[in-house]
Amino acid sequence: MEHVDLDTVNKVKPKMPDTTLLYELSDFFKLMGDSTRIQLLWALEENEMCVGELALLLNMTKSAVSHQLKALRSAKLVKAQKRGKNVFYALSDHHVRTVLEMALEHVAE
Amino acid sequence: MEHVDLDTVNKVKPKMPDTTLLYELSDFFKLMGDSTRIQLLWALEENEMCVGELALLLNMTKSAVSHQLKALRSAKLVKAQKRGKNVFYALSDHHVRTVLEMALEHVAE
DNA sequence: TTGACAGTTGAACAGTTGTTCAACTATAAT
DNA sequence: ATTATAGTTGAACAACTGTTCAACTGTCAA
């Protein structure tokens, strides 16, 4: 006795994303799934800023901000540029704005 | 001696999202940031399916699948319908497809 | 009613994550 | 050279997350 429709399962199976794509996707969303990192991206969409400014804006320690910026940097979402004693961060990809707007549309319903 | 541009910070501050929106956004991304849940959404985009079919498709226990479906259900991303002994799940919102496609575009570069 | 199957639930466990802290490097000013 | 500031780093800690397991509910068939 079998209650599972094997045809459906076998029809859908080949349409599933391969492992690599799957993990790239979930890693991307994982990165966006933290309020601190969203705030950093949101802020950098307005203006490039240095670590101290971002820390002041978010009312956090420079260390905490730096750790999160590192995560965003290794995902190539932001880029860093050293000028004098400061390190200025900027969005490296305006794709981020689109994704944020898409999510906003979903959340604001 | 001050190396932080207060004007920049004060200019950006009012543009930041309020706390509620911020957490709604990060909660949404958190939900998408798991490969199991992405697979479930991806699969349900092709066909509504019951828990057993989804478990077979993803090669997971029904319990694990059920737990994740519950998370997706409380976020209103999927809806459940009981028919006989089975519970069939379907996407409740085709907005999800758009967000996934947006993220795909970002990842595939 | 009894048995079998579909699905749900909560506790427990291991693995992961974000912030803090202290130590560190690097740049600039005196 | 010395001092102060900007930022980075790694270890440690607590909080959170996803899967497993076992016990449970509900539905159908005999």
What does this structure look like?
The structure is a homodimer of 109-residue chains. With 109 residues, chain A is an alpha+beta fold. In chain A, 61% of the residues lie in helices and 13% in strands. Chain A has a 3-stranded antiparallel β-sheet with strand order 1-3-2. In chain A, a hairpin with a 2-residue loop joins strand 2 and strand 3. In chain A, helix 4 (51-58) crosses helix 5 (62-74). The mean pLDDT of chain A is 94. The structure holds a DNA duplex (30 and 30 nucleotides).
Q: How much helix is in the residues of chain A? A: 55-70%
Class of secondary structure makeup of chain A: alpha+beta
Oligomer: homodimer
**Globular, elongated, flat, extended or rod-shaped: what is the shape of chain A?**
elongated
List unreliable stretches of 5+ residues of chain A: none
How can the largest sheet of chain A be summarized?
3 strands, antiparallel
Strand order of the largest sheet of chain A: 1-3-2
Computed CA radius of gyration of chain A, to the nearest angstrom: 19 Å
Terminal CA distance of chain A: 43 Å
Largest interface: A-B, 55 and 55 residues
- Strand/helix succession of chain A: HHHEHHEEH
